[in-house]
Design a protein that fits this description.
Blueprint (H helix, E strand, L loop, with lengths): L7 H14 L11 E2 L2 E2 L5 H10 E3 L14 H12 L4 H14 L4 H4 L8 H13 L5 E3 L5 H6 L5
Parallel strand pairs: 3-4
Antiparallel strand pairs: 1-2
């Protein structure tokens, strides 16, 4: 949905569309469809399963992270919420995700405020990729960070 030369009106529409699909805003009229399924009227249990398949990288990554959690705990949280993996599997997945976005094990014990802006962006990307979503939404600003990440399914 993101085009680099889009006008501001188109960008606002794209941003609002993302918010509708991610259920951050409720539609006032019409229907919201994702992956061939109407999603604006799902029951809470189905909505939760769908949430695991859709993730968002926020524009201000530091503001979207709990300052009391380490980087590893931030990445592990969606794994605990949406997955059934054991603690050992979750730790291995955290290590994979850190490497995938260009962070090291040393960063795993850091708190968000101890990371640089680029490292926080990559941490946000790793958190979004943790649940292996089929859709991940971010703004144009993240293209440079995403080019450093080797996305693997």
């Amino acid at each position: 949905m993101v085009r680099p030369s889009a006008s501001s009106a188109v960008r606002r529409w794209q941003d609002h569309s993302r918010r509708l699909v991610l259920d951050l805003v409720r539609p006032t009229d019409g229907e919201v469809w994702f992956d061939g399924e109407r999603i604006d009227n799902l029951d809470p249990r189905r909505r939760r399963r769908l949430a695991a398949r859709m993730q968002m990288v926020f524009q201000n990554p530091l503001a979207s992270m709990n300052p009391r959690l380490t980087a590893a705990e931030i990445i592990e949280r969606p794994l605990r919420s949406f997955g059934t993996e054991s603690a050992r599997d979750r730790q291995a997945r955290v290590g994979e995700l850190l490497a995938q976005v260009g962070l090291t094990r040393r960063h795993a014990v850091s708190y968000p405020h101890e990371l640089s802006g680029g490292q926080c962006q990559r941490l946000g990307i790793a958190r979004a990729l943790a649940s292996r979503p089929i859709s991940c939404s971010w703004t144009n600003r993240y293209r440079r960070s995403m080019s450093r990440c080797r996305l693997k399914s």
